[in-house]
Amino acid sequence: MAEKTDIRGVLFDRVTFGEASDRLTDALRSGTPTALFTPNSEIVQMCVENPDLYPIINSAELVTPDGIGVVKAGRILGTPFPGGRVAGFDLGRELLRRLDGMEKPDGTKYGIYFLGGKPGVAEAARDRLLEEFPRLSFVGCRDGYFKKEGEENDGVIRAVNDSGADVLFVCLGAPTQEKWISANRGKLPGVTLFLGLGGSLDGYAGIVKRAPDIFIRLGLEWFYRLMKEPWRIKRMIKLPVFYFGTWKYKFTRKKKAK
User: Fold this and answer.
1) Which of 129, 156, 217, 258 has the maximal Cβ count within 10 Å?
2) Structural domain of 90
3) Phi, psi at residue 9, to the nearest 5°?
């Protein structure tokens, strides 16, 4: 099991992209139920402001840093991540690449279910991915517009169970998707991998374009998204709050240690 890095109470796995991908593949092959959460600095800040979220986020078997803000926080706190950013969008896509043609011991394919996004987005993502990975086995799609408890939620759970899904992409946005997985994974005994991947379906469907490589390399993907989606400014305000709060957290911790 990989060593953990504590970033203001959220416990991240110290894994590279390749190691994280291998852990997901190994868990699927061995049938070990595994949840993947990929918090960015905004989600860590949510936990700081609402501590009830800590046990939910930390309950995942694999937690990776999806955002340059978390990676920088690791450096500030003296616990840098060996593999830098390990983005959920890329992990999900790499898993799909590996699943293309991968079979179970009985010769059948692993079933994939897309849950989330606006109506039609999951299906669009599925269709687009099948053009690139034609041997994938999609067993169901469902948008994220449903009540997360009660009869409507029970209906979604029945649909996933009836589909025979082994891999469930839960793209409901944070922290809704993490809460949903934590509350419902026990009702989905056939699912091995639970992936909380935010807006990834929009990306797979081609609705939202990823930032150019230069922005990603410079750690400015957030700025590119802000330029494309100015309404995100209210959410982006949390980034400097998290950044300066991390410096304050570091100095406060040093004083307490003396």
Assistant:
1) 129
2) 4-147+155-257
3) 100, -15
